[in-house]
Amino acid sequence: MPSDVALRVKALESILVEKGMVDPATIDAVIETYESKIGPRNGARVIARAWVNPDYKKRLLADATATIAELGYGGSQGEHMVVVENTPTVHNLVVCTLCSCYPWPVLGLPPTWYKSAPYRSRAVIDPRGVLREFGVTLADDVQVRVWDSTAEIRYLVLPERPSGTEGMTEEALAALVTRDAMVGVAKVSRSGGAAA
Amino acid sequence: MNGIHDMGGMQGMGPIEVHEDERPFHAEWEARAWGLIRATGPFGPTRRRNFRYEHENLPPAQYLQMQYYERFIKVLVDRLMAAKLLTQAELDSGRADPASPRSTPSVTPANIAEQLARRRSLRREDVKIRPQFKAGQRVRARNINPVGHTRLPRYMRGHRGTIVADQGVFDFQDTDAEGYTLPDRPQHVYTVGFTARELWGEAANARDMVHAELWEDYLERA
């Protein structure tokens, strides 16, 4: 049984189509774009490239917007990108406390948790607690850097490359990189998926 | 506006739903809602209230209860009604009033890709202003409480931080009390770093930092 909000969205769509304000084929095209073209696989390719190509990584950290554009990604909500690098002593975490700002060209639309009150409220005051909730426990001597991207800069986290992946191809490495790792709430593991 | 949206540092909002796959939509209506928002072309008056202000201005209980795409749809409906392009009777019946005007969609399958890819930068490369601050300098976020939209989170106000980077000149995004962006006031935007202890007290980890981009008007020398 469709929910109340589902019915309201459906009603609004048919009214606007009747009025000639919206073409349903355009709606289909938007959905198709976000389901197959704009999403976290784009960001994963950027990360994998940075892992295998030191020159690309250097440029990515110096001028993220232009260096990401080399792989064909850019546009709305990716106009001013900054990439922050995780190391054995620094862990980066991205949030937007005031809104839900997120780097669409490389990560797609934000997950529900990123837009939720629990994450937005707590990421700045208790980032280590938030990370534990995601299964990541950091030592006290690792510095946590939180980026509240509530203005015009959008952040992408460059996670640490997992050990034991030295022989892997760029494509295989990209498959290991998760959306959560690029927001900073997860690490990348050799087997892909969540790792503490 | 010291609204419910400005939630950085609040507690008691509950656990985070951490297990979520990477699909952009988790229900058909979410996909249709997002598609509808992006596929509806410009309408109504050209002088528009700030989009984020419209979200922030929703009643707090509604803001917290509504799902993300539901909030976007609510703002779209409010705008259509304000522009007299939609009535409550139409929403209730699910049908357009036969007497209502008919138009032709301006966003089409042919131009949607370009629309979605379009850059909307607020950076003003054309404006040369001397920055008041430079990297490494100590600053304080002003203790101000604007009633319109602002990008200065409450939890940073009155606290001392350090300029990490000058991001260049951007158009100011704060609004007046009605939600209209304040007139042309381009200025430098800085990434400012605050220690967790400065923001949250001695219980915080001594190494941890919180950063945000702050417009020059939000800052004073410290």
Q: Name the shape of chain A in a single word.
A: globular
Question: Major sheet of chain B: order of its strands?
Answer: 4-3-2-1-5
CATH architecture type of the largest domain in chain A: Alpha-Beta Complex
Low-confidence stretches of chain A: none
- Subunit organisation of the chains: heterodimer
Overall residue-averaged pLDDT value of chain A = 95
Spell out the helices and strands of chain A N to C: HHHHHEEHHHHEEHH
Shape of chain B: globular
Estimate what percentage of residues of chain A fall within beta strands: 5-15%
Description:
The complex is a heterodimer of chains A (196) and B (222). Chain A has 196 residues and is mainly alpha-helical. Chain A folds into 2 domains: 4-36, no CATH class; 40-183, Nitrile Hydratase, Chain A. Chain A has 11 helices and 4 strands, in the order αααααββααααββαα. Chain A has helices spanning 4-18, 24-36, 40-52, 54-62, 64-69, 104-107, 112-115, 117-122, 127-133, 170-176, 179-183, and strands at residues 81-85, 90-95, 143-148, 154-158. In chain A, the strands form 2 sheets. A two-stranded parallel ribbon of chain A has the order 1-4. Chain A is globular. The model of chain A has no long low-confidence stretch (mean pLDDT 95). The radius of gyration of chain B is 21 Å and the shape is globular. Chain B is 25% helix and 15% strand. Chain B has helices at residues 28-39, 51-56, 60-65, 68-82, 88-93, 112-117, 196-200, and strands at residues 138-141, 160-170, 187-195, 209-215, 219-221. By secondary structure, chain B is α+β, with helices and mostly antiparallel strands. In chain B, helix 1 (28-39) packs parallel to helix 4. The two termini of chain B are 25 Å apart. The mean pLDDT of chain B is 95. Classes of the chains: A mainly alpha (196), B alpha+beta (222). At the A-B interface, helix 1, helix 2, helix 7, helix 8 and helix 9 of A face helix 1, helix 2, helix 4, helix 6 and helix 7 of B.
